Amino acid sequence: MQRHLDYIDQKLAAHNKALAEADNDNNAEIENEIAHRKVQRAKYEQIQKELEENTSTENPQLSTSDPDSRHQIVRGMITEVCYTAQTTVDSKYKLLIDYKLSNQNDKKAMGMMLRRTKSILRTNSFIALYDKGYHTGSEFHIADQLGINTLVAIPAIGRKSQAANPDYNAEHFIYISNDDTYTCPQGEHLTSNGTRYKGRNYTFKQYKTRACKECPVQNQCTRAKANGKVIQRSQFTQNIQNNAQRVYKNESLYKKRQALVEHPYGTLKRQWGFDHIMTKKGIKAASADFGLMTLAYNLKRIFKLIKTIKLDPICLKHHLFSLNTLVFFVLGYKNRTYTNFHKNTAYSCVFV
Predict the structure, then answer these.
(1) What are residue 190's phi and psi, to 5 degrees?
(2) Where would I find the Transposase DDE domain in this sequence (predicted)?
(3) What DSSP string runs through 134-174?
């Protein structure tokens, strides 16, 4: 926002200078430019004021094209103002069980989708597969409370958290729950003073030992030579470790995730051309739009699957005609012309 205001101020200064140096023949044109820039500045000042007054979120945003859409990372370093589509996909038939449009990233989405899926299926006897964008301690805690096993990809360890020798990374320190201590690969015990520190969305305790300063492998274990190795343990650490153990034991199963979840998105976005939202402003309208897309996808899938089921020919013909009419209505809806197009991200959860 400040960049826009600075740019307008530069233009205004240039126009005012040109006006002072211009003859009377060019004054009207320059004055029109100055008036235009002042209108622009007033617009951005109003937006800046609204942003400053918006304290409802940690990262306040204001979209001028759609009040509900937000600026998000869609992949890598690519960002767009868009909605995020969270979906639940059945691994056997590739059917969409559930969907939810939001204007937030994936970090806090897993728990919500697991609750919804458990309610829809009326069971928790399934395995949930997610990519690393969903790797959040509080969401693992929700999954464990629901009794649902997750397989969420484990993000790479940041350079600052890595030991010079990988054998001395934090995951190789064994936690002893009875004593509330850690045992390092050298056999030393790391203890906590019992204080809980506040993180961004969690609290944690720190574990360390004085023996670290005299340890012969200190250079391989930590870069913090003054204080030695420090292990942080939050209230969600055990939940995170539970997921990690399942991932290591089921690597072949997790590899199926992309083939499962991308099947519906490949059909919707590549084959049918539904790579954007076509309704008017608002998340409710966008959600209804995406819902029609998922309905059409499910019905097309059912048309293929139903051929393998033996049904009464007359009854089958009647139902297929009704379903076919609905699908053509939904697909025809795609050709209607709307403004305010919004990108729709294609990453979500898959269930087996």
Answers:
(1) -100, 130
(2) 183-302
(3) G--HHHHHHHHHHT-EEEEPPPPPPGGG--SSGGGSGGGSE
Type of residue found at 138? S
Task: Of 343, 294, 268, give the one whose Cα is nearest residue 69.
Answer: 343
What's the CA gap between 91 and 306, in Å, rounded? Answer: 17
| Distances 252 to 156, 276, 309, 349 between C-alpha atoms, Å | 19, 33, 31, 17
Question: Position 339: which residue type?
Answer: T
Query: Please, which residues have CB within 8 angstroms of residue 69's CB and are 6 or more apart in sequence?
Result: 63, 81, 82, 83, 103, 283, 286, 342
Nearest CA to 261 out of 152, 154, 342, 334 is that of: 152
Mean pLDDT is highest, among 81-90, 122-131, 137-146, for: 137-146
What interhelical angle do 110-121 and 137-146 show, nearest 10? 20
Contact 207, 233 (CB under 8 A): yes
Query: Quick check: 94 pLDDT over 90?
Result: no
Domain boundaries, the chain: 2-53, 70-154+254-351, 159-241
Q: Which pTM does this prediction carry?
A: 0.73
